[in-house]
Amino acid sequence: MFALLAGSTSGPTLPVVPIVVRSKVPFIASVSSNMKLMEPYSPYVFRVYANDLAQTHALVDFAVTKFALKRPAIIHTSNDYGIGGYNTAVQRLKDKHKLDFVAVERFNDADSDFSAQLLRIKQANPDGVFVWSFSAQGGIIVRQAKELGLNARLFGGGATSTPLFPRGAGPAGVGFMSLFVLPHLPESSMAAPAVAYREALKKLHPNGFPAGRPGTYDMSGFGTGKIAEEGLRRAGRDVTREKFIAALETLKDFDTGTTFPITFTKGRHEGSDRVQMLRINANGAWEPMPE
Amino acid sequence: MLFLLQVIVSGLTLGSIYALTALGFVIIFKSAGVLNFAQGDLMMVGAIIALAVHRTFGLGYFASFGIALVAAWLLGVVLQRVAYRPLVRAPVFTVILSTVAVGQILRSSVRILRGSELSLFPPILSAEPFAWHGIRLTPLNLGIIGICVVTLLAFAAFFRWTKTGWAMRAAAMNKEAAAIVGISVSRVFSVSWGLSAALAAAAGILCAPLILITPDMGIIGIKGFVAAIIGGFNSLPGAVLGGFVLGVLENLVGVYVSSAFKDVVIFGLLLVVLMMRPSGILGTPEVRRA
Questions:
Q1: Partner of A137 at 20 to 30 A CA spacing, among A159, A280, B160, B243?
Q2: Beta-carbon neighbour count of residue A1 at 10 Å?
Q3: Which pLDDT belongs to residue A279?
Q4: Do B212 and A140 count as a contact with CB atoms less than 8 A apart?
Q5: What is the mean pLDDT of chain B?
Q6: CA pair distance B12, A174, nearest whole angstrom
Q7: How far apart are CA A136 and CA A122, in angstroms?
């Protein structure tokens, strides 16, 4: 294997890291935001989108500043993603905004009812609640929050901003705000990169797309392919892994069309820190919020 | 006080889902003497069939529901013929393991056929909340609790007053004796598995608007199993009571102790029940004669 591309969320991506580092195989991770991916730094590992730190800082700053939150609360999943999000959020609240959560609730991956956690949060009377969860559970949380009369503003971590989320939340999801680590390109978008992606997918599946495809995070994988393609092009004909890595480290604001512009340098393999705030509109669809 | 009532009412909603799942476990146990660990996966399959019918043919809720029940019944009968009947003389443990295998096959097959897509089935009643004396409710939640109670009564009547119900109970107690008095044990078992699968499908379809349809939605079957043990594995009212107790207790622990401790307390309670009263709250102890 010359190089490894893509991956799927931090859970299955992180165990790959020691193997690729030991084998000195370049790895461009397309769907992982966990800080541990790049800690300690390895010359072989690259990340395509904003890490947990950048995401959480952006979301906390947006929510506290724009809505003047004074009594934030958080509900988070107990896996790496949720714990990482909580730790970073609580630190950012203290350091930058001199605030603390009035309620902190957690749940497990297999849970499908969150009424106990939401009732405890409601008791704390928060003015904003951060939902650090994957989208399926996040949707149920938002729906149950409305059912239980929790009327605080709700904000989601990056993993909630998928098309699945509004399905789970239903009408209760309208107004829910979340950050997104990729440019907002709905699957039906006629923007050139989205069209190119769908065409490429059609070639792979001429008899129709598999269920759930194209997916939002497919775009990140597609962008990762473009990054690798550009790296190979820059590395020249007699490509080696070292030349490939060196070529990737020359990318500056490289536009894949489906990710934010990517910049890698020697010593920093975080491709982008950019995020975008999205909101669910009255039609139950995600839309970008004005910057 | 109002807050405590809200905690209990929310727990009853959760408990009604557990109760419906627990009923499926108890019915197959009462009639075939088997713990069916594929029950949760049959729930998932039922919900997916209803969703597929609804989407593909544009049929309404009740038509999709009905077709899914029939399909699940047939699936239950086929599973009984293919996976369980050949093991009729095998130790109970072997049959239980085969139900685990069937559950895994169902889950993996769904993943292969439709991926891990999450879907929402339209609810039978509105999910829009309203307040009643300060307690927040939804018609959907109330409806599920009501359906759970009606299902319990219907099955209780079925087992008490119908010939098929008597035959199922007799076959579960003693297959040989049932056969001697003219009961077709094979037919009774087919009916049992079909009925149990259809009930699982009904539970899956009713719960789907609350918990989403995924290949892993059947994991809630574990809580249904716990509810059945707490309530009494050979008692229909016990299964429903166990479900409600479990749901309310989960919420009380989650709110007044810690949400992180919910499962610790629930499974701790399971251990206590197994040690102190293995037949459950309403179950009757099994008498074995030498």
A1: B243
A2: 7
A3: 95
A4: yes
A5: 87
A6: 27
A7: 21
Q: How far apart are CA B235 and CA B253, in angstroms?
A: 26
User: What would the two tokens of residue A22 be?
Assistant: 């030991």
Say whether residue A105 is in contact with chain B using an 8 A CB cutoff: yes
Higher pLDDT, B287 or A139: A139
ipTM of the complex: 0.80
How far apart, in Å, do the first and last CA atoms of chain A sit? 42
Pairs of residues, one from chain A and one from chain B, whose beta carbons lie less than 8 Å apart? 89
A-chain residues within 8 Å CB-CB of B7?
115-116, 119
- From the list A116, A136, A143, the residue facing B262 with the nearest CB is A116
Can you list the pairs that B281-290 forms with residues at least 24 positions away whose Cβ atoms lie under 8 Å? B281/B230, B281/B231, B281/B232, B281/B238, B281/B241, B281/B242, B281/B245, B282/B231, B282/B232, B282/B235, B282/B237, B282/B238, B282/B241, B283/B231, B283/B232, B283/B233, B283/B234, B283/B235, B283/B238, B284/B232, B284/B234, B284/B235, B286/B234
Query: Which candidate in A115, A123, A137, A217 is best for mutational testing of the B interface (most B CBs within 10 A)?
Result: A115
Distance CA A87, CA A101 (A): 11
pLDDT given at position A211: 64
* Burial tier of B93 (Cβ tally within 10 Å: 0-12, 13-18, 19+): exposed
Least CB–CB distance from A168: residue in B114, B117, B120? B120
- State pLDDT tens for residues B147-157: 888 888 888 88
- Residues of chain A whose pLDDT is less than 70? 187, 211-212
| Opening angle at CA A208, ends A204 and A210, nearest 5 | 80
Query: Which pair of structure tokens corresponds to residue A111?
Result: 């849970």
Q: Which of B235, B219, B230 is nearest to B268 (CA)?
A: B230
Q: Is the pLDDT of residue B175 over 60?
A: yes
Distance between CA A26 and CA A4 in Å, rounded? 6
- Burial per residue of B268-279, b for 16 or more beta-carbon CB atoms within 10 angstroms, e otherwise: ebbeebeeeeeb
Contact A87, A32 (CB under 8 A): no
Q: Kindly report, residue by residue over B48-74, the tens digit of the pLDDT.
A: 999 999 988 888 888 998 999 999 999
Q: Which residue in B118, B119, B211, B225 has the most chain A C-beta atoms within 10 A of its own C-beta, making it the best mutation to test that interface?
A: B118
Quick check: B220 and B211 in contact, CB under 8 A? Answer: yes
A110 reaches B (C-beta below 8 A): yes
CA distance from start to end of chain B: 53
Instruction: Spell out which residues of chain B touch residue A284, defining contact as CB-CB under 8 Å.
Output: none
Q: Position of tokens 């809630």?
A: B220
